Amino acid sequence: MTSVATNSGSTTGNGTIPVRFHLSLNVSDLPQAVEFFERVLGQPAAKKQSDYAKFELDSPPLVFSLQPRSPAVHGSLNHVGFRFADSTSLVDVQRRLEQAGVRTVREEGVECCYAKQTKFWVNDLDQRLWEFYVLEGDIDHRGAGQPLENMIGAEAAARMTSAREPVVYEHFMGQPFAPPLEACDEIRLRGTFNLPITPSELRERLSEARRHLRPGGKIHLHQMTSDVAVADEALSLPGRASVVKHVPVRAELLEALRDAEFEQIVISKFASKPCFDLGGVELRETIIEARIAAEAPCNGRFDVVYRGPFAVIHDDEGHSYPRGERVEICRNTWNALEAAGVTDQFTRIAEKTEQLVSCGVSPVC
Q: Which one, of 70, 74, 32, lies nearest residue 53 by Cα?
């Protein structure tokens, strides 16, 4: 009788693995999760859609899939199971489980996860879902067996399925800089400015990147930077860093981004300890991200009050927020503050006060 147990060395006569373990995870950001696991597993995803991704591993024999479903709400595990090479093996296992008193639910020829499958389901004692299935062929749509709206809600599913695949251009040190003809949603420059470049050339490269971005698009800079200028001829770094022949001054790089009219500039990676110390000049791996303005109407205005802890702060759009004072802003500006994670320092004034609220202040007797 066929068993679900297997190991990475088990093969059939044609060299294929008869049973693969199946693991499906819920992830909060599918594109980032795919990129991460491609690095971890050392191979590209076998199937990659805007609402689904799958990896096929031979050692160990694993079908590993990712679903865009909030782990915070639904938990990290979507389901687990086994994929069989043929329907005979699947029937044998289902018969054995039924004879052992394990209830199964069978589905014939169901379209699910961009594939046509025959399968049955089992719930374990803690109500985890186990899937036993045979892959009958790939299809070009998700299928009704596991509709996206049941997983993430109808509204979110509509937004996702109507969304196009983002256009991302990635440039690595030493490559020709040639963004695609179509406008990009994101441009990633990795080590681009760690080869000798003049200040004017740096600004021109950033301006060119900006011209290739869609409204609201993002630029991602992954560079080695310093606090003060380092002569190119003084650079002689060990190991993999030996390819670095120029280190831009971080403040000058940020200023060049502002000059190129980028907004929402954030240093997303900046270690407390440097990678290298050249006679007191510290070199750090730095990631800077910024966006260009979205072509969107203001969509309403309202007042906010910055509560502190600083006397005044400024944003890249030119707004100043003195502590305790009302400042009128556009709703899009508020969305940018929210994306930066600083709105907890503000009070947003209601656009119209319908009813006074109790302030908890007792009258003096």
A: 32
CA distance 42 to 59: 12
Distance CA 293, CA 179 (A): 20
Q: What per-residue confidence (pLDDT) applies to 181?
A: 74
Query: pLDDT at position 311, please?
Result: 94
For the record, the structure tokens of 103 come out as: 């209830």
Task: Report the number of distinct structural domains present in the chain.
Answer: 3
State how far the alpha carbon of 228 is from the alpha carbons of 205, 305, 365, in Å.
21, 37, 63
Tell me the pLDDT tens digit for each residue of 233-255. 888 888 888 889 999 999 999 99
To the question of pTM greater than 0.85 for the whole model, the response is no
Following DSSP, what letter does each residue of 319-339 receive, concatenated? -EEETT-EEEEEHHHHHHHHH
- Collapsing DSSP to helix, strand or coil, 208 comes out as helix
**Predicted pLDDT of residue 203:** 93
Q: Is the peptide bond before 309 cis (omega within 30 degrees of 0)?
A: yes
Residue 30 shares a structural domain with residue 135: yes
User: Are residues 114 and 138 in contact, defined by beta-carbon separation less than 8 angstroms?
Assistant: yes
The pLDDT score that the predictor gives to residue 176 is: 85
What number of CA atoms fall less than 13 Å from residue 330's CA on the CB side?
A: 12
Q: Provide the domain limits for residue 325.
A: 301-348
What pLDDT shows up at residue 15? 47
One domain for residues 157 and 175: no
Please identify every stretch of the chain with a pLDDT value under 70, giving residue numbers as ranges: 1-17, 109-115, 137-165, 295-300, 351-365
Q: How far is CA 303 from the centre of its chain?
A: 32
Position 335: which residue type? N
Virtual CA dihedral for 158, 123, 64, 12, nearest 10 degrees? Answer: -130
Distance CA 249, CA 229 (A): 6
Residues 187, 197: contact at Cβ < 8 Å?
A: no
Could you give the CA distance from residue 262 to residue 248 in angstroms, rounded to a whole number? 18
List all residues 6 or more positions away from 8 whose beta carbon is below 8 Å from its beta carbon.
Answer: 17, 58, 59, 60, 61
DSSP SS3 for 207: helix
On whether both 262 and 193 belong to a single domain, the answer is yes
